[in-house]
Amino acid sequence: xxxxxxxxxxxxxxxxxxxxxxxxxxxxxxxxxxxxxxxxxxxxxxxxxxxxxxxxxxxxxx
Length: 62
Description:
By secondary structure, this protein is mostly helical. Helix content is 44%, strand content 0%.
């Protein structure tokens, strides 16, 4: 797609968009877990993942 970047000679990337979203979520009071779920990240630690079954529905904005 070659979307323009703010940095001369570079193009914007999907990772940059994801990073911007993560910063926005943190700055607006969303928890780490909720932001990571929104980005479809999985929990790498298998033990933690096994016990983390919530859908975080109460923390989602309405």
